[in-house]
């Protein structure tokens, strides 16, 4: 007896059956607070400023003026939209990390329509064509790896990753092809004089009209995605395929069809983001138009446990940090990449805290026998 | 046409960071960890080496002492290994001990690592209060890029085989060594067992956690050296933000391309290095500059095709490790 006791480990890890929603939120909140404290300490070491004024500066960076606030919400919307787009695929355990490429291809399709059709068809029809072209382009770009996955079980994490770079080079190719003026390597603002293909501003006469369209679309798709995943038959099929492919086959779900359909939706929404970025926000196309948000969105979606409503807050947190840290960096003459470090730290803490939600540790005390 | 005597040394120089990265990632993936943080790790490795070299050079200018070759090489290298090791430990702690999702952890590490590299690359001078305009570590870099003295006398042979810094040869040595360990030794067998089926390995008495930690941390340290080679040898000690580019992802692509074999990676890295700069050597004419961008696409397209073909042929020895990307929890079977 004493012999076995010696080998008894100090603690023991057990999977929790379930955890109350309150407690789970509490653990996550605690992790975020701890991360924010660590971020403040690091910023303090680097800049020598006290933490409260650092977060003050960050708040100014994100919400300091009316315009800044609108831009913050616009950035949140874009990040949120990409995260929402990836979510149905993730729920099916299809690791689509190709959001970056799908956004680029959607943007490329929109830009192509603007350049080639601008002035030749009425503006309303042009925007309609752009809409379908972007959705289709993003969808097709994501379906290529999905077909490989469905047919031959090709690892989708790696194939979607490769598709990102193929898309980047494709955009680079067209950027040089369409560059204005020749030799600049940039497309410049498309249709600056005619505004053909520019997405309309919603309302006018107030400061936010330029940003409102993106925000409204993001809200609509958030609600739509929540309903689609939670209440529709297709959403249920996605959950079943994600939980167990064999169960899905057994109950008669056509797994290949579900994979391809879901990933198409995923890519199409990414394509829509490309349309918003090119047609609505930047009015130009560059290879960095997605700005790494395709990758950040993967983390946003996962952090929110694939819940569209929580995703709103997760995107807000990430955008707040990056804009705030940008402001801190500018103020102290530091490098803009400072925000990536802070984002990384927050992510590590949240990733780590999931453990304490899924598992519990029971300590064994020496001498006490149950 | 293309001058191969000129292209090969350039391809090798481009390929060495990829070789480090892919060898490190192969070891990591063989333990069942899909570490998408490799691009970040390579940045951290590079900047850690740069920080080490920077402070060493600062101390030299202060004391006025002459550079010591041994210290000039060892300080950046140890800093680089330490930085990459810490990243590896972080990844393992999150994914192995805390069983977090590997894709998310990896991507977060890449965000953090690239940010870390660019931040210190851009702000190191300001933070340390040094009196230099930019980070240019020519003194220490000289020791990294020194080729063999008689390489120049041997014509094309010297140029193709002997003209590189010592880190290039170390990369090949490490790759050969890793291949032998994976294929011929008991340790390699155990490692592969952990990556294929951790539950089986566990019941055979193999320490799954120890193997995962070991392989991933060593893998990260090897990958970090790739970053160090890039900045100290290829870039002559000059740090510029985002210069390393997407080479980290290309290293991950190489792992698939070489079907998880470090010895093949020696040649594949050089091939990819060549493809990476091939666009500079294919004449496009001034009015078709856009074609260059399509040539840059080649490495990724080739990788995608290889990935699809290996999954199509479904040969058992060419597959990814079966438990790649999955966390292992002993009580969950």
Description of the molecule:
- The complex is a heterodimer of chains A (370) and B (333).
- In chain A, helix 4 packs across helix 9.
- Chain A is mainly α and 370 residues long.
- The longest helix of chain A has 30 residues, at 123-152.
- Chain A has helices at residues 2-6, 21-47, 51-63, 66-91, 99-117, 123-152, 156-177, 209-231, 233-243, 245-250, 255-282, 293-303, 308-331, 338-358; strands at 11-15, 359-363.
- Chain A has 14 helices and two strands.
- In chain A, 48% of the residues are buried.
- Residues 1-5 of chain A have low confidence and may be disordered.
- Chain A folds into two domains: 1-49 and 332-370, no CATH class; 70-326, ABC transporter involved in vitamin B12 uptake, BtuC (Orthogonal Bundle), CATH 1.10.3470.
- In chain A, 72% of the residues lie in helices and 3% in strands.
- Chain A is globular and about 80 Å long.
- Chain B is mostly helical.
- The longest helix of chain B is centred in the first third of the chain and has 29 residues, at 69-97.
- The model of chain B has no long low-confidence stretch (mean pLDDT 85).
- Classes of the chains: A mainly alpha (370), B mainly alpha (333).
Helices and strands, with pairings:
The complex is a heterodimer of chains A (370) and B (333).
Chain A: H1 2-6, E1 11-15, H2 21-47, H3 51-63, H4 66-91, H5 99-117, H6 123-152, H7 156-177, H8 209-231, H9 233-243, H10 245-250, H11 255-282, H12 293-303, H13 308-331, H14 338-358, E2 359-363
Antiparallel strand pairs in A: 1-2
Helix pairs in contact in A: 2-3, 2-14, 3-13, 4-8, 4-9, 4-11, 4-12, 4-13, 5-6, 5-7, 5-11, 5-12, 6-7, 6-11, 8-9, 9-11, 12-13, 13-14
Chain B: H1 4-30, H2 38-63, H3 69-97, H4 102-128, H5 138-145, H6 155-162, H7 166-184, H8 186-196, H9 198-203, H10 208-234, H11 247-257, H12 262-278, H13 290-295, H14 298-313
């Amino acid at each position: 007896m004493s012999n076995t006791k010696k080998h008894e480990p100090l603690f023991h890890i057990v999977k929790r059956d379930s955890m109350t929603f309150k407690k789970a939120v509490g653990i996550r909140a605690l992790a975020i607070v701890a991360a924010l404290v660590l971020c403040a300490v690091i910023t303090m070491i680097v800049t020598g400023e006290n933490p409260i004024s650092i977060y003050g500066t960050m708040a100014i960076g994100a919400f300091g003026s009316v315009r800044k606030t609108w831009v913050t919400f616009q950035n949140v919307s874009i990040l949120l939209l990409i995260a929402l787009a990836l979510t149905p695929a993730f729920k099916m355990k299809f690791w689509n990390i190709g959001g970056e490429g799908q956004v680029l291809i959607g943007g490329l399709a929109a830009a192509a329509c603007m350049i080639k059709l601008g002035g030749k068809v009425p503006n309303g029809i042009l925007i309609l064509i752009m809409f379908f072209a972007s959705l289709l382009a993003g969808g097709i770009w994501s379906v290529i790896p999905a077909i490989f996955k469905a047919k031959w079980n090709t690892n989708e994490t790696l194939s979607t990753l490769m598709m990102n770079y193929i898309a980047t080079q494709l955009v680079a190719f067209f950027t040089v092809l369409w560059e204005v003026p020749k030799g600049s390597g940039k497309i410049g603002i498309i249709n600056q004089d005619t505004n053909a293909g520019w997405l309309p501003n919603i309302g006018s006469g107030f400061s936010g009209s330029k940003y409102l369209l993106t925000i409204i679309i993001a809200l609509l798709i958030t609600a739509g995605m929540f309903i689609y995943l939670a209440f529709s038959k297709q959403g249920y099929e996605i959950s079943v395929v994600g939980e167990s492919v064999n169960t899905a086959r057994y109950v008669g779900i056509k797994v290949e069809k579900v994979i391809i359909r879901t990933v198409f939706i995923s890519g199409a929404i990414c394509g829509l983001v490309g349309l918003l970025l090119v047609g609505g926000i930047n009015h130009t196309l560059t290879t960095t138009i997605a700005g790494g948000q395709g990758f950040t969105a993967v983390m946003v979606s996962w952090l929110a446990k694939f819940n569209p409503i929580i995703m709103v807050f997760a995107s807000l947190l990430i955008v707040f940090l990056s804009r705030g840290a940008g402001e801190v960096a500018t103020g102290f003459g530091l490098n803009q990449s400072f925000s990536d470090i802070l984002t990384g730290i927050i992510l590590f803490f949240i990733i780590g805290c999931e453990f304490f939600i899924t598992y519990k540790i029971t300590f064994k005390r020496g001498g006490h026998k149950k | 046409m293309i001058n191969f005597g000129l292209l090969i040394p350039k391809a090798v120089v481009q390929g060495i960071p990829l070789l480090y990265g892919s060898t490190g990632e192969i070891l990591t993936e063989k333990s069942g960890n899909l570490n998408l943080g490799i691009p970040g790790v390579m940045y951290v490795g590079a900047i850690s080496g740069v920080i080490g070299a920077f402070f060493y050079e600062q101390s030299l200018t202060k004391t006025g002492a002459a550079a010591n070759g041994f210290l000039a090489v060892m300080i950046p290298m140890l800093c680089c290994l330490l930085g990459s090791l810490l990243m590896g430990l972080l990844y393992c702690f999150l994914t192995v001990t805390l069983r977090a999702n590997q894709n998310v952890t990896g991507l977060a590490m890449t965000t953090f690592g690239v940010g870390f590299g660019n931040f210190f690359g851009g702000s190191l001078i300001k933070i340390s209060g040094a009196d230099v305009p930019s980070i240019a570590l020519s003194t220490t870099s000289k020791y990294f890029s020194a080729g063999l003295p008689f390489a120049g006398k041997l014509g094309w042979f010297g140029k193709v085989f002997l003209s590189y810094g010592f880190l290039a040869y170390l990369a090949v040595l490490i790759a050969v060594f890793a291949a032998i360990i994976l294929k011929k030794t008991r340790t390699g067998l155990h490692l592969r067992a952990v990556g294929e089926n951790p539950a089986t390995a566990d019941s055979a008495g193999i320490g799954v956690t120890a193997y995962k930690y070991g392989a991933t941390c060593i893998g990260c340290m090897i990958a970090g050296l790739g970053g160090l080679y890039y900045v100290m040898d290829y870039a002559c000690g000059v740090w510029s933000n985002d210069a390393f580019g997407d080479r980290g992802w290309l290293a991950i692509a190489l792992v698939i391309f070489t079907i998880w074999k470090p010895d093949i990676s020696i040649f594949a890295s050089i091939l990819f290095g060549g493809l990476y700069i091939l666009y500079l050597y294919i004449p496009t004419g001034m009015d078709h500059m856009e074609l260059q961008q399509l040539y840059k696409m080649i490495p990724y397209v080739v990788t995608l095709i290889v990935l699809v073909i290996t999954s199509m042929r479904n040969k058992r020895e060419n597959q990814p490790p079966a438990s790649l990307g999955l966390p292992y929890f002993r009580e969950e079977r």
